[in-house]
Amino acid sequence: MDVFTFQFVLKQLNAPVMTSLPVNLFTPITVLDVEQSSFDTAKYQANKCYDNVVNTLLKNINEEPELKLCIGLHQIIDKPEQIVEHCWFEYDGVYFDFLSELPKWKYFKYQSLNLLDLYSTMEEMHCKSVPNIIELQAWAQNKKVN
Known about the structure:
The chain is an alpha+beta fold. The protein has helices spanning 49-59, 115-125, 133-145, and strands spanning 3-10, 15-22, 27-29, 31-33, 68-76, 79-91, 94-97, 105-114. The strands form two sheets. The chain has a six-stranded mixed β-sheet with strand order 3-8-5-6-7-4. Strand 1 and strand 2 (15-22) form a beta hairpin. The two termini are 26 Å apart.
């Protein structure tokens, strides 16, 4: 089975951890620079993708309620072994990110959630912060079993 081995931050330890998930859980996508979008972004903070996306969703909740947080992976084209968890925006089926920070990357979508779906999922999962891919995958597997 083909897998992506990637890095994410384990919140409990605030430390990077490596794990693997099957490639078939992800969809390759094309991402545009957020400068080309029609929505307003919150103040950008370097290396804070979840904060940047959630703050932008909150800023746009009335004007753009279908703006979504998209969770997935990105991979450096020149170093394909370097894959990390990341999040960006989905709006009307088009994906956006702060590309000036991340040149020459491939993106792989895991899941997209608008703000209301995100809050509902967090409530069901009993999370106090945005869940990562591993948490979402474990929760989805648990829901299938129960």
